[in-house]
Amino acid sequence: MKKILAPTDLSELSRTGVRYALETASSSGGEVIVYNIVGYHEAVPYYELEDAYLPQQVPTVEEVVDEHRKRLAKFLQENFADLMAKTKVRQEVAIGTPYDKIVEKAATEKVDLIILSTHGRTGVLHALIGSVAEKIVRLALARF
Q: What are the beta bridge partners of residue 92?
């Protein structure tokens, strides 16, 4: 595997997927693109029109992305310092719908593999929210 895409939402659950991607790339001499997608709801938060929310307090999209870059770097350093030294890692942050951005990135980068964790929701919660991993698989199969 020469190029692996490892999407992460920076959660504890996503650590398993990122670790597996880093270990796989380390053993094969490949590169890992660790990819964090900021959902639109985070990038352009809704603020009630009250005196407490002055325009200068609303973060710009660039500030939100920059904050996520810092969080991603901290997430990797705190959880994977041992593997970071052994593996070529590229950190990227984008704004959009996670499953769309992940499949688009995989196509653009011509990755060999996408490795991600799933929250494992089932039943009603799965029906209401859906599974990002499932949507990625469906879109990727249709695209590739």
A: 35
Task: Find where tokens 């920059």 sit.
Answer: 66
Low-confidence ranges of the chain (pLDDT < 70): 41, 43-57, 119-131, 141-144
Residues in the chain: 144
Name the 3-class secondary structure at 77: helix
Looking at residue 131, the DSSP 8-state letter turns out to be -
Number of domains in the chain: 1
CATH value at residue 29: 3.40.50.620
Q: Given its phi and psi angles, is residue 108 left (phi above 0), alpha (psi -120 to 50 degrees) or beta?
A: alpha
Strands (E), 63-134: 88-95, 113-114
Sign of the C-alpha dihedral computed for residues 39, 20, 115 and 89 taken in this order: positive
What angle (nearest 5°) sits at the alpha carbon of residue 95, between those of residues 127 and 116? 55
Stated pTM of the model: 0.81
